[in-house]
Amino acid sequence: xxxxxxxxxxxxxxxxxxxxxxxxxxxxxxxxxxxxxxxxxxxxxxxxxxxxxxxxxxxxx
Length: 61
Known about the structure:
The chain is mostly helical.
């Protein structure tokens, strides 16, 4: 997700504003410390122009 955001020249804060979350939430998603809810994952995918499956994958923890 980070590279898609950076390709658009957006900061974490800008992406956060676009989807209605905090910058810290975007940072936590990008660093793997937080898994977004399905609605948030779908909003991020739509905004970044990719299918959700290309951005997020299911990882066994």
